[in-house]
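If your schedule permits, I should be very grateful for your opinion on a structural question. Thank you for your consideration; the sequence and its tokens are set out here:

===
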Amino acid sequence: MTDAFRFPAEWEPQSAVLIAWPHAETDWAERLGEVEETYVALVAAITRFEPVVICVADEDLQTYAEARLRSARVDMTKVQFVPAEYDDTWLRDTGPITLRAGDRFKQLDFRFTGWGGKYQASRDDLLVGELSGMNLFHNYFVQSIDFALEGGAVETDGAGTLLSTWQCLHERHPELPREEITTRLAGWLQQDRVLWLDHGYLEGDDTDAHIDTLARFAGPEAIVFQACDDPADSHYAELGAMAEEIAALHTRDGKPYRLFPLPWARPILDGSRRLAASYANFLIVNGAVLMPAYGDPADAGAAAVLAEAFPDREIVQVPCRSLIWQNGSLHCITMQLPEGMLAAG
């Protein structure tokens, strides 16, 4: 550790969750009505536990979003709108990664390349800087880092251990050896251990195997991960190999992690294209875990696993079938803000 800043775990107290409202100029245009229903349900769920900050492209969109939320009886005292330009709404990857040192905060603004140049992302790459000029946050500064990294690619236990997938980071930086990427991530994110997974993928995922679709910390000694128990499924061997990798990992004290395998949803197709329905893409908020639900019988089993992994939190299902049409899910469209970060007023 080179300074007092620390990368907090998601289960630590939060001041708010940051999202961006979808509109007709985003990739959601073709199925905007469906995804708006998910956003209304998501905001309703978040505001039961903490505030939400919603980026909107213009005043008309704010007026519309506010009307939708009011009609759903959302507690609008916990909703704050901010104007911003964005190409799309995946704020896990375009929003700020925040470190804290007491009541001081540092937002890391990594380069966003549209997941390795797959999509246009010029406005998304400017989002952190745009938000920094709004008096939205308290006692913080922004550190710009010329290195492609998305928030969904890294997972921390809040105590100096980082979990990630080699496939994603290697795809972003094929010229760099693992040791160099490990050193850079550890330095920027204030970690002293980086654990790599070499296996794991989901059909329909275009992030090159983001860790937040595959495996998540549930405290410093536990990992929740997406399993596949269907030998006939194309994911069976790869996710089985990932499960073996996770089982071989050890905590800082040298003990195996307590493991919580999530059930496998039946294939969800968009025409002939399979969609990436992962239950690992949950969001932890104050007092609850918001879980993506896909209208599948496995939803109930996933909720039961998460209740066991997070026994002190309420498990709230949010319908996310509309999100996976665009290759992401609930965690991907959100970014939590640590407690004390949101400016008053």
About this structure: The domain at 14-338 is CATH 3.75.10.10 (L-arginine/glycine Amidinotransferase; Chain A). The two ends are 34 Å apart (CA to CA). The chain has one domain: 14-338. The chain has a mean pLDDT of 96.
